[in-house]
Amino acid sequence: MKLGVVGLPNVGKSTLFNAITQAGAECANYPFCTIEPNVGVVAVPDHRLAKLAALYDSQKVTPAVLEFVDIAGLVKGASQGEGLGNKFLSHIREVDAIVHVVRCFDDGNITHVDGKVDPVSDVETIDYELIFADMDTVARRVARIKNAAKSGDKKLLVELEAVEKIASLLEQGRPVRDMGLTPEEYAFVADLFLLTAKPVIYVANIGENDIGKEDNAHVSALKAIARKEGAEVIVLCAKVEEELAALSPEDHAMFAEEYGIKESGLDLLIKVGYKTLGLISFLTAGEKETRAWTITQGTKAPQAAGKIHTDFEKGFIRAEIVNWQDLLDCGSLNVAKERGLLRSEGKEYVMKDGDVVLFRFNV
């Protein structure tokens, strides 16, 4: 899973990025502090791995990983190249979902690019720049298909109708993710990697004094936007998250408790990211390695096997599966088998979160 962290300049993107990745992205009080995207890879916390590794006395434990990309601050006109915008927009095409950091605190010492804190205006600025960029991309596709469709090819005419519909809705200010497109319609533009087709997770960056309090007016405004879109909102203080991330585990726990912070920003983003993208993890366990693998909900056993190695999918025979908690309760795979908790599943089995699996294959 790759998440792109976006927002206007000086809203706390790089501060949040530092907190969740400890990658040391530069932070400063001026626009375009981030020019090239910073990339950080973090392990996905999973308490199941340590328990399974202890059961098998595994030599190695490999968690699933999450990649964060800190993309430079966008401004009005980014889609037309303002503020190095085109370069920054291209980085967004490579991510699975957008983490939109929105400033929800007042501080006269930190410059706002528009001179005032206004989450509604900030969100609109980013949204419209992404829409404008998509309009340009789709317009080029329309022109190409129109020229080819002069031959009278029925398939091209159907495609042209679908792409023109998308172009029209973009012109009305609607992002692709909210158009209600059929799978067939979206298939015509899937290879364009449209920016507004990506799901969005909003992060309300609040001030230190607002931690643990009722939502301020800025947060309430952002949540109202998210409700209309069916999007998730995470409320946190990026500055405090960054400070806590630099502490030892003991000090982190102590100060987090003082602030009333029950979950770290990283944990919240992982949880919401998996939910937003419809992801789950299955597990493999043994003496050599215990490992988590990330797949999309609804993935069938052969395709899950292919995540480990393409040969596993090509030569798939069956999957031997047991729930991770059942395996721990039994104490061994043999006991789980004796109790009828180890199942043999075929090609149509839909994987479940927490499945511990051994794939049988023959190539």
Multimerization state = single chain
Shape: flat
Distance between the termini: 29 Å
Nearest-angstrom radius of gyration? 23 Å
In total, the number of strands is 12
Structural class: alpha/beta
Strand content: 15-25%
pLDDT averaged residue by residue: 87
Please give the count of helices: 14
Strand order, main sheet: write it out.
2-4-1-5-6-7
Low-confidence stretches: 24-35, 81-86
Strand count, sense and barrel status of the largest sheet are: 6 strands, mixed
The percentage helix is 40-55%
Order of helices and strands: EHEHEEHEHHHEHEHHHEEHHEHHEE
List the keywords.
363 residues, alpha/beta, six-stranded mixed sheet, three-stranded mixed sheet, 14 helices, 12 strands, 42% helix, flat
